[in-house]
Design goal:
Layout (H helix, E strand, L loop, with lengths): L3 E4 L5 E10 L6 H17 L8 E9 L4 H21 L4 E9 L3 E11 L14 E4 L5 H10 L3 H7 L5 H16 L3 H9 L4 E4 L4 H11 L5 E11 L2 H7 L18 E5 L1 H11 L11 E8 L3 E13 L19 H4 L1
Helix pairs in contact: 1-2, 1-5, 1-6, 3-5
Length: about 325
């Protein structure tokens, strides 16, 4: 599971807790703090939990930084983390800071809740539909952005993408990684989700396989569609086996929720999450189906690539190309 669930001795309550940390991957320290916090909270959201009682921040300050760099960068990173926690309706009450050769940021998220407040990730049944709430391609976008200033790297991809494309994809990836999965977590209850996980370091296929293995029924997940930040699939292909984006093995950071929903609820979930009442930027796509099987997951040989246009790219919006979300019937 994405979080540990510990039954408490009193009142039918459970303590649900998770922790995570990683190295910086974007240039903006404030946004890096927000991404780190969103990534920690996402493990609670993957279980349908929308409230967090407390957060701790884990921070490693690099010994290689000058005093001036440290005084500038670390407060911005901490502020980003705290601001994202506040957006999630919680607060940072403590943590641990150490000196280290590398910068590391992460945290701990804790909530005490009733059983009705979380959704155990083990109830998928044949006929369910798989929905994803953020586009893939964050690792490719971050790496490609770094390669702009490294000629030997840039030469590998310059025939398939422009520097402007990469800059827009990087901004889109940063925005998505910093966005909380809280809205999706709430809608999991509204639309009777049967199971979910968040997509991070194991890639879409790895996390789908992990989730399938947890199911009580004999099911298999089949992924037909891959929503990917525009041009990132082309970069991945140009790089050979480095990323494996279309194969489902490319790592994501603070990715979306992969949700198993009843067939009749999936399209409604996707429509509702885009409602203006939840703010801008929320997205969802039907990407596959749950069928009878041996608790496995796979991507079909030629998945449909949905190119998700970065929000700074002008016309085209966030729906991607093609602009329509396929119906569950189209995947059957």
């Amino acid at each position: 599971m994405d979080s540990c669930v510990i039954p408490l001795r009193h009142g039918g309550l459970s303590l649900v807790q998770t922790t995570d940390f990683f190295y910086p991957l974007v240039e903006d320290p404030y946004m890096m703090g927000r991404i780190a916090c969103a990534n920690v909270l996402s493990d609670l959201y993957a279980m349908g939990i929308t409230e967090c009682d407390n957060m701790l921040m884990l921070l490693s300050v690099s010994q290689r930084m000058s005093d001036k760099e440290r005084e500038k960068v670390m407060p911005l990173m901490m502020r980003g983390f705290r601001d994202a926690a506040e957006e999630g309706g919680t607060s940072v009450t403590g943590g641990q800071t150490v000196l280290n050769p590398w910068i590391i940021i992460g945290g701990v998220a804790t909530v005490v809740c009733q059983a009705s407040e979380f959704i155990m990730p083990d109830n998928a049944v044949p006929g369910d539909v798989l929905v994803l709430t953020k586009p893939l391609g964050t690792q490719v976008a971050v790496n490609a952005h770094q390669w702009i200033d490294i000629p030997e790297k840039w030469n590998k991809i310059k025939l398939v993408v422009s520097k402007e494309d990469v800059k827009l994809a990087y901004q889109e990836a940063m925005y998505n990684m910093a966005m909380l999965n809280r809205t999706a977590a709430g809608l999991m209850h509204t639309f009777n989700a049967h199971a979910a996980t968040d997509i991070t370091g194991f890639g879409i296929l790895g996390h789908a396989q992990n989730l399938a293995q947890q199911q009580r029924c004999d099911v298999a997940f089949v992924i037909h569609n891959l929503p990917i930040i525009a041009k990132m699939a082309a970069i991945s292909k140009a790089c050979g086996s480095m990323f494996g984006l279309v194969q489902g093995s490319s790592a994501e950071t603070s990715g979306g929720l992969l949700v198993c929903l009843p067939r009749e609820q999936a399209a409604r979930f996707c429509a509702e999450i885009k409602s203006p009442k939840y703010g801008e930027g929320h997205q969802a796509w039907i990407i596959g189906i749950v069928e009878k099987g041996n608790r496995s997951a796979r991507i079909i040989d030629k998945p449909r690539i949905i190119e998700v246009t970065p929000r700074g790219a002008g016309a085209g919006g966030q729906e991607g190309t093609p602009t329509t979300t396929p119906s569950p019937e189209a995947l059957a």
